Structure formats: structure tokens, C-alpha cells
């Protein structure tokens, strides 16, 4: 049984999350990159109003009391908001090879089957880009260092975050947002 690191349990708009990131101080632990996930279960269709505070507290019980993990992913992004789960300044549990190295961002949905570029999936997509960009800026991370969970050689989640999530297109959107919102803070390098 591990010591549970706790959760923040607060939700942000993209603009609010950007401000929040700039107030964080990574003193004890500093992530080297970001890992992108989809929840798979629940699907987006199974959460018609996105994730509520009760859903977030249910996820805390799941990771803490059933999985007996020390933490979970850092963010849950849905079509309405960005939820901060595990504090961004401590390591989480989300990807076996990379827990000590990386932030984990979960997108609500199953993007093997659900659309990522239309409907509610497009809103999750936009909010995920809006989460990755300020974290990259605040940490000085080159966006191209971001990895998909399925790139972890030790994971059993071989499709996460889903085939509809194109990495190159996603990174271009992150860099475009960085250029607009964080000009001068972060060098935008074109993604090959
Ligand atoms: Zn994953």
C-alpha cells in the first residue's frame, strides 16, 4: 500500500489553466516531457456532460483504494474543462516507463472509435492542446518531446490515446498556440 499523494480536484478553463501553470514551481520534481492518453473507459458518449467533481472523486477512490497506487494522471481533459488531478509538481502514475519523467494527461474518450476532429471530441481536442501548450511554456519543454502512451514499450495500452489522435497535427496546434499566447517565452520549432 503506497502513500496517496492526493489530488487538486479543481477545474479550469483554458485561460484559467494557463494562469495556473505560471504560478507553479517544480522544485522537488521537474518533468521532462508530457504523455498523452485517452481514458478509453469511460468513453465520451458515456459522460454526456463531461467529468463532474463526483466523477473526479470516484477516480480518486479507484486509483487510491482499488489500484492502491500512490497517484494517478495529472490532468483529465474533457469537452468542458481541464481538471487537475495529481498535483502537477509531483510525479504521477500513468505510463510504466515514464512515471518519474513525465506528466500524464488523460483525454476523456475512446479515440480508436470516437471522433477527435468533430463534435464533442473536437472540444476535448482543443482543450488538450490548451493544456499542453502552457505546460510546455512553463516548463520550457519543446512540444515535440511529447509522447503518446502507446509509445511506451512497457505499456499494455497499445492503442492509447487512439488512432484518431494524430501526433504531428496535435503538435502543430500546440506550437501554433504557443506562438500566439507565449510569444517570446518559447521558441516555436516546426514539426517535421
Ligand atoms: Zn494511456
Automatic annotation (TrEMBL):
N-acetylmuramoyl-L-alanine amidase domain boundaries: 30-163
Pfam families assigned to the protein according to its UniProt record, in alphabetical order: Amidase_2
Name this polypeptide is given: N-acetylmuramoyl-L-alanine amidase domain-containing protein
Amino acid at each position: 500500500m503506497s502513500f496517496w499523494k492526493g489530488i487538486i480536484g479543481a477545474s479550469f478553463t483554458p485561460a484559467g489553466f494557463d494562469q495556473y501553470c505560471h504560478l507553479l514551481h517544480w522544485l522537488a520534481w521537474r518533468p521532462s516531457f508530457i504523455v498523452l492518453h485517452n481514458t478509453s473507459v469511460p468513453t465520451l458518449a458515456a459522460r454526456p456532460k463531461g467529468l463532474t467533481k463526483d466523477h473526479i472523486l470516484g477516480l480518486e477512490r479507484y486509483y487510491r483504494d482499488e489500484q492502491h497506487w500512490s497517484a494517478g494522471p495529472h490532468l483529465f481533459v474533457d469537452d468542458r474543462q481541464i481538471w487537475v488531478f495529481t498535483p502537477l509538481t509531483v510525479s504521477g502514475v500513468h505510463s510504466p516507463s515514464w512515471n518519474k519523467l513525465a506528466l500524464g494527461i488523460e483525454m476523456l474518450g475512446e479515440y480508436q472509435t470516437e471522433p477527435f476532429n468533430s463534435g464533442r471530441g473536437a472540444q476535448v481536442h482543443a482543450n488538450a492542446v490548451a493544456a499542453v501548450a502552457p505546460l510546455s511554456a512553463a516548463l520550457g519543454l519543446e512540444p515535440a518531446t511529447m509522447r503518446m502512451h502507446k509509445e511506451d514499450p512497457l505499456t499494455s495500452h497499445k492503442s492509447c490515446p487512439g488512432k484518431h489522435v494524430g501526433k504531428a497535427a496535435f503538435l502543430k496546434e500546440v506550437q501554433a498556440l504557443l506562438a500566439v499566447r507565449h510569444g517570446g517565452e518559447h521558441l516555436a520549432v516546426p514539426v517535421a
